Amino acid sequence: MRAFTELFAPLTEQARQRSREAALAGTPQSTGDVWIFGYGSLLWDASFPHQEARTARLIGWHRSMCVWTALARGTPDLPGLSLGLLRGGACDGIALRIAAGDLDAALPVIWQREMWTDIYEPTWVSLATNGVSLSALAFTVNEASRQFTGDLTLDQIIAHIAMAKGERGPCREYLANTVIKLQAMGIADSYLEDLQDAVTARPRAD
Length: 206
Description:
Elements: H1 13-25, E1 34-38, E2 52-69, E3 80-98, H2 103-114, E4 120-129, E5 132-141, H3 154-163, E6 165-166, E7 169-170, H4 171-184, H5 190-200
Antiparallel strand pairs: 1-3, 2-3, 2-4, 4-5, 6-7
Helix pairs in contact: 1-2, 3-5, 4-5
């Protein structure tokens, strides 16, 4: 099992603000609204103002349990894992539309959550949804971050998910909530479903 000597360093609020401003400056849209692509906890816990949610597919990226979490769903002594987007394949998720008038309220909430550290990079991507293409912000993995797991064996992944627990609860709960929401949306993800089966078979942490 992997362990760390301390929590991962958070970004400063100034760094988060610069990141938000840079992301908005690079928007390819002209409507003023901003779409966010949810593929992990944003599927079932989008706690910011949004006016619309659509099932969407992202080509060229795939979901992976490749992000260490040593606070929300784990500790430095026993870190958990959370989802990130890596290059290649495809990913089905949800597109969330934030109206232009809500950006000042919504984006700081999203950046505080997704950009707490340097593990994610706000990336403009093209989504296929309802037969049309739209531009959205997705939080992809910064592979230079200390929170990127690199190559873990399947058994290591299962063990960390099964045993880790943090401020927001067990890591296995994060995985289960994601699988449940995807299935409710009619989205099959064999990668996550197989992990869920394997984790369920493991004993729970005390």
